[in-house]
Amino acid sequence: MKLVKTPLPGVLIVEPAVYGDERGWFMESFNEPRWRQALEELGEPQPRPFVQDNHSCSRAGVLRGLHYQLPPHAQGKLVRVVRGRAFDVAVDIRRGSEHFGKWFGVELTAENKRQLWIPEGFAHGFLALEDDTHFLYKTTDVYAKECEGAVRWDDPAIGIKWPPTGAAEPSLAPRDAMAPALESLRAC
């Protein structure tokens, strides 16, 4: 496993070792001791253990996010695509951070097998780029409705450059379409 730093401190691309031959391929999608060792070698903080896995399936043009959870149930997320393609985004929402409101995006695909680590204090969202895109999340805390929040996906203060999908507008859940702007964010 190789961890790659991004322009947002703490947000990391995870490139697993993939072993292939004429029969197909094999990879460890997660290994706790190797994960912790790789973080230590990069000088990154050790997150809480993962306690929940989630799986979503989306049509092309579906945008989910930008979501976060506040303490005491803040979540770090390790995410990957196991079928299809998605543009995955993390936004720093930590008040007082020199990177507050900055974003980083990367394409995750079943083919590239990349993962993205999004620590606590970041909003997260993704845009499905193909039909039948399956997205897996490992989280460091359970879902807690009373702690959830969202930031508007197209907030000009953030300025995410979402890739085109052929639709005029992405398909959104009502709560995502009504999400507030970054400036009215609940304190993180």
UniProtKB/TrEMBL annotation:
Tell me what reaction this enzyme catalyses.
dTDP-4-dehydro-6-deoxy-alpha-D-glucose = dTDP-4-dehydro-beta-L-rhamnose
EC numbers, comma separated: 5.1.3.13
Q: Which UniProt keywords apply?
A: Isomerase
Q: Name one Pfam family in it.
A: dTDP_sugar_isom
InterPro entries documented for this protein = RmlC-like, RmlC-like_jellyroll, RmlC_Cupin_sf
Instruction: Please state the pathway this protein functions in, per its UniProt record.
Output: Carbohydrate biosynthesis; dTDP-L-rhamnose biosynthesis
The record's NCBIfam families line, in alphabetical order, gives: rmlC
Function of the molecule: Catalyzes the epimerization of the C3' and C5'positions of dTDP-6-deoxy-D-xylo-4-hexulose, forming dTDP-6-deoxy-L-lyxo-4-hexulose.
Subunit structure and binding partners? Homodimer.
Against PANTHER family, the record matches this protein to: DTDP-6-DEOXY-D-GLUCOSE-3,5 EPIMERASE, THYMIDINE DIPHOSPHO-4-KETO-RHAMNOSE 3,5-EPIMERASE
The UniProt similarity line reads: Belongs to the dTDP-4-dehydrorhamnose 3,5-epimerase family.
Name the UniProt record assigns to this protein: dTDP-4-dehydrorhamnose 3,5-epimerase
Please name the source species.
Rubrivivax gelatinosus
Q: Which gene encodes it?
A: rfbC
